[in-house]
Design goal:
two-stranded antiparallel ribbon; alpha/beta; nine-stranded mixed β-sheet; 11 strands; single chain; about 25% strand; globular; 5 helices
């Protein structure tokens, strides 16, 4: 069955086309772009995706202005109805700002922009996003961010461990200071995924296919 994917574009989004191609390449999805000023999502949408970039120039706080855009109320309603939501890099930051995912993304501990390939460990392979991975498998996704330092308080950290909400961890080195090396988390129902690394940049044989399984998993 063909799933319909909506990719939300904000002023400053710059990974929207990468994400479009990553989904479209699988021949499993109908992919459309959505504008941040839209107030409704398509009725037949199966997944809403928020791409990376620098929405609204990352002013105030990363994702803070985008989280007040007209489309956000529709995304929150969509997510609360049990539908799938994916946020990558700036999209992860926006999902945390909306409260759909726990925690906050702070400035990298180095205070510098980090752009490199990063080894990750798959922490939960029992979700719709990850079922084509193996538990504790090492994968290689690029990272490119200035504010990827994931932080939660101790109470929230216990909750995400208890609910198996950690999706990926940085493996062998931590590029930004994230608590417990966390690189991505799920919502409690595991239908919302936010991660700082970019799986959409690992979907071709020329540069690597580690990200492709994430995009295939949703329709397997």
């Amino acid at each position: 069955m063909t799933m319909k994917i909506g990719i939300v574009v904000f002023p400053g989004s710059n990974c929207d086309n990468d994400l479009f191609r990553a989904f479209e390449k699988q021949k499993l999805y109908e992919v459309v772009f959505l504008w941040h000023k839209d107030t409704d999502l398509p009725k037949d949408l199966d997944l809403c995706a928020i791409p990376g970039g620098f929405s609204f120039g990352d002013y105030l706080r990363t994702g803070a202005i985008a989280s007040k855009s007209p489309i956000i109320n529709a995304i929150i309603k969509f997510a609360n109805s049990g539908r799938f939501v994916l946020g990558i890099c700036n999209g992860f930051q926006i999902l945390c700002e909306t409260g759909l995912l726990p925690g906050v993304l702070l400035r990298n501990i180095s205070t510098k922009f980090v752009c490199k390939n990063q080894i990750l460990k798959v922490c939960n392979s029992n979700t719709s996003f990850s079922k084509l991975y193996n538990e504790n498998e090492e994968v290689n996704f690029p990272i490119a961010h200035h504010d990827g330092n994931y932080f939660v308080n101790n109470e929230t950290k216990k909750m995400i461990y208890d609910n198996n909400q950690i999706a990926f961890k940085y493996h062998k080195n931590n590029p930004n200071g994230s608590v417990d090396n966390i690189a991505g988390v799920y919502s409690q129902n595991h239908r919302i995924l936010g991660l700082m690394p970019h799986p959409e940049r690992r979907v071709t044989s020329e540069i690597g296919l580690d990200g492709e399984r994430l995009f295939k998993s949703l329709n397997v």
